[in-house]
Amino acid sequence: MAPNDSAETTGKATGTVVGRRKAARYIVPVAVAGVAAATIGLVPALADSGDPELPKISAQELIEKIAASDEQQLSGTLKISTDLGIPSLGGLASSFAPGGAGTDGGGSAAPEDKLMELASGTHTLRVAADGPDKQRLSILGGAAEYSLIHNKGEVWAYDSKSGEAYHATTGAEKQKQKQHKAPAGVPTTPKEFAEQALAAAGDTTSVTVDGTSRVAGRDAYQLLIKPKQSGSTVASVRVAVDAANGVPLKFTLSANGGGKAVVDAGFTKVDFSRPDASSFSFTPPKGAKVTEADDLKDAAEQQGGEGKAPEGLAELGGMKGLEGLDGLDGSKGLNVIGDGWTSIAQIKAPGGSGLPTGGSQGSGDMPAEAQGFLDALGDKVTGKFGSGTVFKTRLVNALLTDDGTVYVGAVTKDALVQAANGAK
After folding, report:
1. Domains identified in the chain and CATH numbers
2. Which of 129, 92, 127 is nearest to 113 (CA)?
3. 39-40-43 Cα angle (round to 5)
4. pTM of the complete model
5. CB-based burial of residue 18 (10 Å sphere; 0-12 exposed, 13-18 middle, 19+ buried)?
6. In terms of Cα–Cα distance, which of 129, 130, 147 is closest to 138?
């Protein structure tokens, strides 16, 4: 059918809605120097053919419908994939995670180890929720399955492939809250992605209603979010919103460079009735190796503790969520250049030096695997600022100058160089 009449929201209207919601973070750190970041992507949901005839609705009304949605019970299946244009993160991620490869303890079923894998490749997820105290997320992989279960203050994770389990109770859960949510708050549903995108909407953003669709057998409106500014790597965000209850069913983030979507999140099956109570019960199988959250905390402290991003980094690029960039603990501060979708964070890296090197056969300052990853992403650039290296994904790009300054945002390489030139 023809698209609904479109209407742009104002910054004021959007701010009112977003103020009621805590935006989900979605950026995952991928480089030890803290100069590159990646996002998770989800492949398109299997939608029914034919666009439904629905009552017309304005963009502001549809945003308010999302904000007012309070569906706390659901179960369903998601299809997940990533196309960031970067090498696979799986091996690199496990190299630096507590309890992962490169530590004395070996791998574990801790969420920060497993959920990082969603940053690349194709995945199928099953989800279930019954209010704020009961959730379950399962990642399916052939005959194996990884499950993360939260039930009234107790968290269990189990990897059937390795036979390893992770456990945290109320006290430990508070200490390890970051890990339970996945690295840097990785979202796992279209709603979390949609709230993130709406948090960015304002005077620099066009928000319109662009027709209808069928997703997972349900009627939906299409909300289209587009930056008004040039220089952003984001072309558009499209959210399919359930016409009945306002729950986002599908989320698609497209890059300005064209090609398949960078992020495409969608339900292939969804049910808003209460899941069976057994979905949130777990007892580790006999013989499973169980790691307690406190054990991982102790291991992380022995390795020097976890990094902390400078305050304000989440405001970058019109899309909050670049928190967690490693290596910036103790930085001299953060300066945000520009606003909206073309915001660029300027960060003084600790020590005032550029990239560490891997040396011959990985004998330098960083593991050979990490060095190869950075080399695959990097382009050498020069300008009034001097020289440096731009690390590229299809969404987030970062410039690390040879004097140790980082410029990072969801912007083009030219925008980063211009920002560095102007900052001198």
Report:
1. 21-300 (2.50.20.10), 308-423 (3.30.310)
2. 92
3. 135
4. 0.70
5. buried
6. 147
Instruction: List Cα–Cα distances, 203 to 206, 252, 343, in angstroms.
Output: 8, 21, 14
Q: Which residues make Cβ contacts (< 8 Å) with residue 305, sequence separation at least 6?
A: none
Burial degree of 160 (CB within 10 A; 0-12, 13-18, 19+): middle
pLDDT at 300: 58
CA-to-CA separations, 344 to 61, 126, 193, 395, in angstroms, rounded: 31, 36, 21, 13
Q: Looking at this protein, which amino acid is placed at residue 1?
A: M
Nearest CA among 221, 197, 178 for reference residue 21:
197
Which phi and psi angles does 228 have, rounded to 5°? -85, -20
Low-confidence ranges of the chain (pLDDT < 50): 1-49, 90-106, 172-173, 175-185, 306-332, 359-363
Among left, alpha and beta (phi > 0; psi -120 to 50; other), residue 394 is alpha
- On whether the CB atoms of residues 126 and 189 are closer than 8 A, the answer is no
Residue 99: the pLDDT is 40
Q: If we measure between CA atoms, which residue out of 381, 76, 168 comes closest to residue 390?
A: 381
Per residue in 180-218, pLDDT (tens digit) is 443 344 566 777 777 777 776 678 899 999 999 999 999
